[in-house]
Write a structure and sequence with these properties.
Layout lengths: L3 H9 L3 H8 L3 H12 L4 H8 L20 H19 L12 H9 L21 H24 L4 E11 L4 H4 L9 H14 L2 H10 L25 H10 L1 E6 L4 E8 L2 H59 L4 H30 L7 H24 L9 H5 L6 H38 L2 E7 L12 H29 L2
Antiparallel strand pairs: 1-3, 1-4, 2-3
Helix pairs in contact: 7-17, 9-12, 10-12, 12-16, 13-14, 13-16
């Protein structure tokens, strides 16, 4: 700007003849000057170079020709031209440069025309844009939170809650309970049964039992027209898929300290919620009764089988004893030995008497006499009978080699018969004792099974609710907003972490 002002001042100090000549310029010269201006040439500078004598008397300082021609010169020239036009419009006389000669114009037009530079930089139109962070917040937080609020406040159907509490108790009481102290942990068997009922309520088996035993399809309570589209189910939905939905609409918990079970049922009308709770309690009570009866039958069945085995063993031993008595023709082992001893004593007494009479006869007659020979045969027979009876009584005596005696039961060894009787007697005693013990255990198991019987006790019955407790519309909307905001913050943190550590 400082370099262009001396030029303008020098042009204002030109002689009047130059001003007159410039004022009398023809239209052709004006057109040439405009053409040179369009191609980026400065007509004033060209005119001064063509007529150096016109500017000899002026006080204008020479232009620094060492300054490289470029965008800076063009900018300063354009500013000078604009200033000159403004002065001309204001009524002031402005000196114009002398017109260029034809030779100068020919030289200018013979030069190749370069790329035309724009006079001013055209700024692009300002576009309204939002940063990526704001867009992500809008699409990830604001829009979903608004949709959730619209659903909870305007579309969500009211849900009714029914509460019920029950307990699984046994008929017997422990020694701690009889002393007035509470049961810690609710008892082992009772806790197991309570956990079984808790799992049963949330299972597919309960849905089937309610449908088969009570004729109630739980799916019908959740297919009403007034239920919103998010919670309404298809009436033909398979039971396997409906089980997951059923677990969302129930809440059952077992307190191991008190032994009580709390059940919550959720439905979309007061009547439906109470009907569902009543059906669940009925099938749960039947389950507890079936478990108790099954446990009692199992205990009694095991005890009964033990009695049957003991009885069969005793019957078998008694049959062998009876068979031995029939074979030996005796009632007891003592009678066998006593009868044989009596026979031995009788034979010995008769043999002694016969020998005495035989000795006395030999003093009177010869031994070859008929009376002596007859008495001798009697003595020999008695001795043989005594030996046979003694061999039957002796346990170590050798068996007879006579086949007829071996087959004759009356010729058997008495010791062997006594041993058989003793073995059977001992076995019979053990069988009798086992049978007696089994009978006592059976009676005890019956009493214990009756004591261990379980009862389903409902102490908080389900009642028809008066108002709908859920959904908590504004609270659920606020929670949804917080959750979406947390997800958005985590995504922003991860995105910025990855971008900062990217190579």
């Amino acid at each position: 700007m400082a370099a262009s002002e001396p030029r303008i001042a020098a042009q204002e100090q030109r002689p009047q003849q130059n001003q007159g000549a410039a004022a009398n310029a023809s239209p052709l010269e004006d057109a040439v000057e405009a053409a040179l201006r369009d191609i980026g040439e400065n007509p004033a500078l060209r005119a001064r170079q063509a007529n150096p004598d016109d500017n000899a008397g002026s006080k204008e300082q020479p232009v620094n020709k060492e300054r490289p021609a470029g965008k800076a010169d063009n900018k300063e020239d354009r500013r000078a031209n604009r200033r000159m036009r403004r002065e001309a419009k204001g009524g002031r006389a402005v000196s114009l440069p002398a017109p260029a000669t034809a030779r100068a114009l020919d030289k200018e037009f013979e030069k190749p025309v370069g790329k035309r530079e724009p006079k001013t930089k055209i700024k692009p139109a300002r576009q309204w844009t939002l940063p990526w962070t704001a867009l992500s917040f809008i699409f990830m937080v604001l829009i979903p939170a608004t949709l959730a609020t619209i659903y909870y406040v305007l579309l969500a159907s009211p849900q009714y809650q029914v509460e019920s509490q029950f307990s699984v108790r046994s008929a017997s009481q422990s020694s701690i309970a009889t002393m007035g102290l509470p049961m810690i942990g609710g008892g082992g068997a009772q806790s197991q049964d309570s956990y079984i009922v808790t799992s049963y309520i949330e299972s597919l088996q309960l849905i089937r039992d309610v449908q088969q035993e009570l004729g109630i399809d739980l799916r019908q309570f959740y297919t009403r027209d007034h239920i919103d589209w998010l919670y309404r189910v298809d009436p033909s939905m398979p039971l396997e898929k409906f089980t997951g939905y059923w677990r969302d609409m129930t809440d059952v918990s077992f307190n191991a300290t008190t032994g009580n079970t709390t059940l919550y049922i959720y439905a979309f009308s007061a009547e439906d919620s109470k009907a569902i709770a009543d059906a669940v309690l009925k099938v749960s009570e039947k389950l507890v009764n079936d478990l108790s009866e099954s446990n009692r039958q199992q205990v009694m069945q095991v005890a009964s089988k033990q009695v049957d085995r003991s009885e069969e063993r005793l019957r078998k031993v008694q049959g062998e004893v009876r068979k031995l008595r029939e074979t030996e023709k005796v009632l007891t082992p003592e009678s066998v030995g006593g009868q044989l001893n009596q026979q031995i004593v009788a034979v010995q007494s008769q043999l002694t008497s016969t020998q005495t009479r035989f000795n006395a006869l030999l003093k009177e007659v010869d031994k070859n006499a008929p009376q002596a020979r007859s008495m001798k045969r009697t003595i020999d027979s008695l001795e043989a009978q005594l030996l046979e009876l003694q061999s039957q009584l002796d346990a170590t005596a050798s068996k007879s080699t006579d086949p007829s005696k071996a087959r004759d039961p009356s010729k058997q060894n008495v010791a062997e018969v006594l041993n058989k009787f003793e073995e059977l007697t001992v076995e019979q005693g053990f069988a009798t004792q086992a049978y007696t013990t089994a009978l006592a255990a059976f009676e005890t198991s019956i009493a214990e099974a009756q004591k261990q019987e379980r009862y389903f006790a409902t102490f908080v019955s389900p009642t028809r609710p008066e108002i709908a407790l859920y959904p908590l519309r504004w609270l659920d909307s606020f929670i949804a907003f917080l959750v979406l905001l947390a997800v958005w913050l985590v995504s922003q943190f991860l995105y910025r972490s990855f971008r900062d550590h990217a190579i």
